[in-house]
């Protein structure tokens, strides 16, 4: 036979494709009509739920697929309950057990205790909670109406712009009632801390507290939970507790957010010095392609890696930060160094400025869970142990 022409080949391929489509149609609509075509009509009447990307899932606490509660985890939970039930909780012991992660069931009260919001004395806790919650809503009554005043309107406008950008993939944070909560918390904090005021990035720091305190009332599907369905008193308590715990956190890192953000500038410089001692290859690779640490690490310090990790990982990370002395300030530096070295192979494979910066600003942590965060923290602890007490820690 003569060699087929291009047009005849295309025509043959089209005919074959048409026949395959016809067979597929017959198979679906005639051979399996009861199992395929009929349920389709039923599915159309079901409410459509948003598909939430893995990176935005809150409740997926372990991406490695481990069973919900192992014998070891149950034993740890019992130990936490025993500590928390004591008339005077031993905070040092609580920190020691919290370092490797806090069970979800006891995380809210443990965070309140470790942040210094609740007293160790069990009898005093209810009284302190009531007083602090009343105090917060006293601030709301006293100051929140001033958000439209000339002096504060720029602050409020910036907060109002930033709130919808906070975890945009999670429906929970797009609810008007939740956004109003965040606006009140951030505005009250800003006017009570005039040395810094509101700075972009602080809005991210509310979310872990809000989610953890909400988890006391929601067991699953946190991403879609309608907060307005909760009793008003419960909503108010979650809001007040989130405010006070975020305030306690920021008390330790406020120089990150004062004019020119000197705290962050110093931490980025410290990271550069630390990496030059830990991994000279990475450090020289950055120098070769003119990558400045400030170009990627400013956000790591400003947002405490919240833009780099799924929220579920941030919550696990903060278990350790609250257990570690100066966790949000000093220990975070070593976590950032460990995080950078985690991507060593990918960094050294990039041979241009743009590729390196794209990697460092979009690290692929979408599938991370407790296991990955645990390994990161272990490496950070090793680095701290090796370098923190060295006299020439930040000097060559």
TrEMBL record:
Domain Rab-GAP TBC, chain residue ranges per copy: 101-325
Job of this protein: May act as a GTPase-activating protein for Rab family protein(s).
Keyword field: GTPase activation, Phosphoprotein, Signal
Signal peptide boundaries: 1-37
Organism this protein belongs to: Echeneis naucrates
PROSITE patterns, A to Z: TBC_RABGAP
Transmembrane segments: none
Gene Ontology MF terms in the entry: 14-3-3 protein binding; GTPase activator activity
The protein's name in its UniProt record: TBC1 domain family, member 22B
Pfam families, sorted: RabGAP-TBC
């Amino acid at each position: 036979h003569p060699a087929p022409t291009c047009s005849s080949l295309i025509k043959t391929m089209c005919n074959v494709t048409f026949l395959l489509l016809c067979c597929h149609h017959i198979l679906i609509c005639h051979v399996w009509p009861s199992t395929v075509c009929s349920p389709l009509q039923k599915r159309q009447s079901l409410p459509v739920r948003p598909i939430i990307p893995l990176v935005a899932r809150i409740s997926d606490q372990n991406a490695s697929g481990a069973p919900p509660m192992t014998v070891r985890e149950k034993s740890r939970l019992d130990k936490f309950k025993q500590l928390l039930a004591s008339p005077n909780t031993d905070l040092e012991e609580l920190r020691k057990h919290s370092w490797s992660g806090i069970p979800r069931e006891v995380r809210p009260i443990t965070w309140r205790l470790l942040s210094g919001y609740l007293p160790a004395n069990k009898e005093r806790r209810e009284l302190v909670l009531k007083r602090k919650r009343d105090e917060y809503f006293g601030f709301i009554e006293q100051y929140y109406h001033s958000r439209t005043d000339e002096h504060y309107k720029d602050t409020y406008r910036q907060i109002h712009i930033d709130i919808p950008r906070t975890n945009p993939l999670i429906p929970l944070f797009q609810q008007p009632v939740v956004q109003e909560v965040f606006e009140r918390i951030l505005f009250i904090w800003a006017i009570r801390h005039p040395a810094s005021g509101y700075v972009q990035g602080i809005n991210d720091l509310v979310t872990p507290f809000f989610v953890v305190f909400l988890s006391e009332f929601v067991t699953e599907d946190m991403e879609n939970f309608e907060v307005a369905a909760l009793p008003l008193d419960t909503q108010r308590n979650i809001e007040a507790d989130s405010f006070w715990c975020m305030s306690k956190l920021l008390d330790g890192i406020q120089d990150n957010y004062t004019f020119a953000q000197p705290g962050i500038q110093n931490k980025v410089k410290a990271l550069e010095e630390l990496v030059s001692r830990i991994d000279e290859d990475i450090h020289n690779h950055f120098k070769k392609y003119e990558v400045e640490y400030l170009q990627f690490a400013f956000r790591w310090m400003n947002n405490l890696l919240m833009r780099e990790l799924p929220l579920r990982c941030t919550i696990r990370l903060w278990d350790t930060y609250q257990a570690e002395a100066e966790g949000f300030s000093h220990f975070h530096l070593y976590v950032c160094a460990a995080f950078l070295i985690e991507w060593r192979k990918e960094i050294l494979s990039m041979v241009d400025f743009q590729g390196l910066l794209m990697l460092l600003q979009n690290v692929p942590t979408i599938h991370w869970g407790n296991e990955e965060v645990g390994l990161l923290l272990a490496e950070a602890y090793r680095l701290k142990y090796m370098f923190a007490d060295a006299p020439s820690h930040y000097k060559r």
